[in-house]
Design brief:
Blueprint (H helix, E strand, L loop, with lengths): L1 E6 L3 H10 L8 E7 L4 E2 L4 H6 L8 E2 L7 E5 L2 E5 L4 E4 L6 E3 L2 E4 L3 E3 L17 H12 L6 E5 L3 H13 L4 E5 L11 H13 L3 E3 L4 E5 L2 E4 L2 E4 L2 E4 L3 E3 L1 H4 L18 E2 L2 E6 L12 H19 L13 E6 L3 E6 L2 E5 H15 L4
Parallel strand pairs: 1-2, 1-9, 2-5, 9-20, 11-12, 11-17, 12-13
Antiparallel strand pairs: 3-4, 6-7, 7-8, 10-18, 14-15, 15-16, 19-20, 21-22, 22-23
Helix pairs in contact: 1-7
């Protein structure tokens, strides 16, 4: 049997599985999904789990169940591209060989080499990390100072959700730029900033952090006391991808050919946040790429040349608690209750594998 292995059961990996099993899979192909968790977790909603407004169970989606799909649980630590082997951290199962591989492992925090950032801040980049962040935030004493570092989408959503969950906390959103949500138009940024001011969340701009220590954030103009610090100030590919000896872009994402294959190792595809794509990493992009990789692989199995259409992203939606939101739908800027309702609909579709 030829081994087609998907490393990572996130948005991209599960999309590939669903699409492949819609068509014909050759009898000599064994499809294996590898993940360290026994379910897909909805990473776009991690902010709600951290804030205590969604349960652990609400953010789990069962992995696909198809006849012929093999699921292996384990944590991959490296990929030997030359010998086509995946190595695991667990003893007793040192490696798994593959004929074709999809690396769809997502991202981790980018601490920008800031001393103490990893050691003295909380993360929302993995399910286990979010659970720990939830405990720290929700065990915080009344009037505790909570600092959220990073004024992008993740930082904004967790700050807003935490404000609704814990009105007793003193929350600040810290960013090194001149305004929140710098990737969005100024109109959206202004709306979100106004929402925070109305809901007693402090927004601090032009803060360049130098280091973190227990209970304090050091920056170029002074110090900020902090009972809990949550880090949302950038992402980078996971260590396994960073350690691959292949060409990467400035963000450390793997450079690929037109079929999302590593040029020197065409049997290896890279999907999602680890792939160098012409747009920002997102669940939507990973799903779109997953559809295309499944189409490419199916065509290759049939001995045909794949034909692809460009990935078209539908937009970006963000939430400000349970009643307000913001986003971009094509070129349209939307704020208020409508984008929040739309995001709830997208979440429902994701849970039911319709997104």
């Amino acid at each position: 049997m030829k081994q087609f292995v998907i490393l990572g059961g996130g948005y991209g990996g599960t999309t590939i599985i669903h699409e492949l099993f819609k068509g014909h899979i050759p009898a000599d192909i064994q499809i294996t999904l590898i993940d360290r968790m026994p379910f897909q977790s909805l990473k776009t909603e991690y902010y709600a789990l951290a804030a205590g407004t969604a349960s652990d169970h609400e953010l789990r989606v069962p992995f696909p169940h198809y006849h012929g799909l093999n699921i292996k649980y384990g944590e991959a630590v490296s990929v030997d591209l030359e010998n086509r082997r995946i190595h695991f951290s667990e003893e007793g199962e040192p490696h798994l060989e593959y004929d074709q591989l999809v690396i769809a492992l997502g991202c981790t925090d980018n601490y920008h080499n800031i001393p103490g950032a990893k050691e003295f801040s909380c993360s929302i980049q993995s399910f286990s990390a979010v659970r720990e962040t939830y405990m720290k935030l929700n065990n915080a004493k009344p009037n505790s100072k909570i600092n959220i570092v990073g004024g992008g989408l993740s930082g904004v959503e967790i700050a807003a959700e935490l404000r609704e969950s814990r009105p007793d906390l003193n929350i600040a959103l810290i960013d090194r730029g001149s305004r929140l949500l710098s990737a969005f138009p100024p109109k959206v940024s202004t709306y979100v900033t106004k929402w925070f001011h109305e809901h007693d969340v402090e927004t601090l701009s032009h803060i360049s952090i130098h280091s973190l220590e227990p209970g304090v954030i050091h920056h170029e103009n002074g110090n900020l006391l902090s009972d809990v610090t949550v880090w949302t100030a950038g992402i980078r590919p996971v260590d396994l991808v960073q350690n691959l000896n292949v060409a990467k872009d400035r963000q450390g994402r793997v450079l690929l050919d037109e079929y999302y294959q590593i040029p020197d190792y065409p049997e290896v595809f890279v999907c999602g946040d680890c792939a160098s794509l012409p747009f920002a990493p997102s669940a939507q992009a990973a799903e779109g790429q997953g559809h295309q990789i499944a189409h490419i692989v199916s065509a290759q199995w049939r001995g045909e040349t794949p034909k692809l259409q460009p990935i078209k992203l539908k937009g970006t939606l963000g939430s400000l608690g349970k009643k307000a939101g913001f986003g971009l739908m094509g070129k349209a800027q939307v704020t208020g209750r409508v984008p929040r309702l739309l995001k709830s609909g997208v979440l429902w579709m994701s849970k039911h594998h319709l997104g």
